[in-house]
């Protein structure tokens, strides 16, 4: 039941970065005992709202109110003191400190001699984990923890500071379904204790499972704040994108041509074994399977980023030199990696420089790279992908997650590949941008490009793939045609179960 007075209220806030108006007059309340969804396409202003609530940015105009009183945050410490804690998609723990030390960071208990009281610190961590209903060793280093466990440590940190307002920014993007349900059980218990939860996600099934109220933004503006009860997914999508989304998976029927990629008996000790499959021109082949099945590892080896012990990779009938991304690129292969921030982009460089990195030598004249040529080449693909940006000279790190993904796509599509590998192409991307990426992939296949798509989202696999290669524990469990591939058949293969009659 919602409280009469909001624990936190965003009232008519605006925020601009140069000529870009990121947030324009947005208002909504957060009530205790309630989970509130904040949704919108990438670039809608969600991350800017989160950073204002976290004390990273200050509103240009408008006010933030905590417990009915106006609040000014001059930094993250002020937001924390006001009872606000933020859990990001990528946790920010100190890897070489213990779990207990991470939880107590900035608020360590002290002995009479003003030394850190480690016994009390560990006892506090145990008490917090018991309250959350999870079992984690407070003495182990944070390094090596799964993303799911790192997020539980972040929640414990929030509880240790007695936060009553918990902001969760895409917390489930890298989690399995089992880990998501465990996280949600913890969040529901905090909600039931009276905390206010602001939940940001692109997954509608999670929003409807967890939240009671929703705020929708579009192009930096507030569209609506209303109860979720009675709202269909179509209603939410229509409000987000400002149009009917006729087809999330606009798959074109294409007659596949010659074999472009042949993977035969690829093995790497302890990672994957005897992987064989092929991809033809005009064909989209999906690699599916549970987290840890080895999908990304196989494609990293195919592209030459990682080594392999046995097997061969052929592109266009010619054997590819192992362990050489340069040879893969020369053969017409392109890889859009899963981790766009760490592997796909150089965050400090400009948008135009990131787009043109693979082609820098070709664009150079007499060894010098022309800014005009670079800008022209980058503009072509950023416009094709409808990338929302200020200037091409801006650092790519200033873009929203979805627009960063478009820059990674632009970077590789500008090389004119014959074979495109896309690893989780729509992870963390809003529904409108997903449709654009799917439409682009379908168009590329129609133009004769062979595509390998690694995806954890079953609807995406079933909607876009001509064939599905299911991996389980580093082996090929099944290869299914589009007609054979269903949610049941893919999951049975991924889990090593026989399909029901």
Automatic annotation (TrEMBL):
Its main location: membrane. The keyword Protease does not apply. Keywords: ATP-binding, Cell membrane, Membrane, Nucleotide-binding, Repeat, Sugar transport, Translocase, Transport. GO terms for molecular function: ATP binding; ATP hydrolysis activity. It is a peripheral membrane protein. Gene3D superfamilies: P-loop containing nucleotide triphosphate hydrolases. GO terms for cellular component: plasma membrane. It is found in: Cell membrane. SMART domains: AAA (SM00382). Residues 8-244, 254-498 form the ABC transporter domain. Coiled coil: none annotated. InterPro entries: AAA+_ATPase, ABC_carbohydrate_import_ATPase, ABC_transporter-like_ATP-bd, ABC_transporter-like_CS, P-loop_NTPase. PANTHER family: CARBOHYDRATE TRANSPORT ATP-BINDING PROTEIN MG119-RELATED, D-ALLOSE IMPORT ATP-BINDING PROTEIN ALSA-RELATED. This is Ribose import ATP-binding protein RbsA. It comes from Paractinoplanes rishiriensis. The gene is rbsA.
């Amino acid at each position: 039941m919602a409280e009469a007075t909001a624990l936190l209220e965003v009232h008519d806030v605006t925020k601009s970065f140069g000529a870009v108006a990121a947030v324009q007059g947005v208002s909504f309340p957060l009530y205790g005992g309630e989970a509130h969804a904040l949704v919108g396409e990438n670039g809608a202003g969600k991350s800017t709202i989160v950073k204002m609530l976290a004390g990273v940015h200050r509103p240009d105009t408008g006010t933030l109110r905590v417990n009915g009183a106006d609040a000014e945050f001059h930094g993250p410490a002020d937001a924390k003191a006001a009872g606000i804690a933020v859990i990001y998609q990528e946790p920010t723990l100190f890897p070489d400190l213990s779990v207990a030390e991470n939880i107590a960071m900035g608020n360590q208990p002290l002995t009479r001699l003003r030394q850190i009281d480690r016994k009390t610190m560990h006892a506090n961590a145990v008490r917090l984990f018991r309250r959350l209903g999870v079992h984690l060793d407070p003495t182990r280093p944070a390094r090596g923890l799964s993303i799911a466990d790192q997020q539980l440590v972040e929640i414990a940190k929030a509880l240790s500071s007695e936060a009553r307002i918990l902001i969760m920014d895409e917390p489930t993007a890298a989690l399995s379904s089992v880990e998501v349900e465990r996280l949600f059980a913890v969040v529901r218990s905090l909600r039931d204790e009276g905390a206010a939860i602001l939940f940001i996600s692109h997954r509608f099934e999670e929003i409807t499972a967890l939240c009671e109220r929703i705020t929708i933004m579009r192009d930096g503006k507030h569209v609506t704040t209303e109860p979720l009860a009675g709202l269909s997914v179509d209603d939410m999508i229509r409000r987000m994108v400002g149009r009917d989304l006729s087809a999330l998976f606009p798959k074109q029927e294409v007659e596949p041509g010659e074999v472009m990629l042949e993977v035969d008996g690829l093995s790497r000790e302890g990672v994957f074994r005897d992987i064989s499959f092929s991809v033809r021109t005009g064909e989209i082949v999906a690699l599916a399977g549970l987290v840890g099945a080895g999908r990304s590892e196989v494609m990293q080896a195919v592209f030459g980023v990682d080594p392999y012990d046995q097997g061969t990779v052929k592109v266009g009938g010619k054997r590819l030199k192992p362990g050489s991304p340069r040879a893969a690129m020369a053969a017409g292969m392109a890889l859009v990696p899963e981790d766009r921030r760490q592997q796909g982009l150089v965050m400090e460089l400009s948008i135009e420089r990131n787009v043109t990195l693979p082609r820098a030598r070709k664009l150079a004249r007499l060894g010098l790279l022309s800014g005009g040529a670079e800008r022209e080449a980058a503009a072509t693909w950023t416009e094709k992908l409808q990338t929302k940006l200020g200037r091409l000279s801006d650092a790519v790190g200033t873009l929203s997650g979805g627009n960063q993904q478009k820059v990674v796509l632009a970077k590789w599509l500008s090389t004119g590949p014959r074979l495109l590998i896309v690893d989780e192409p729509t992870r963390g991307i809003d529904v409108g941008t997903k449709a654009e990426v799917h439409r682009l992939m379908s168009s590329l296949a129609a133009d004769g490009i062979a595509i390998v798509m690694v995806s954890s989202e079953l609807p995406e696999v079933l909607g876009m793939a001509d064939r599905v290669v299911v991996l389980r524990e580093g082996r090929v469990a099944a290869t299914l045609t589009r007609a054979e591939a269903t949610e049941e058949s893919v999951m049975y293969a991924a889990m090593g179960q026989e399909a029901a009659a």
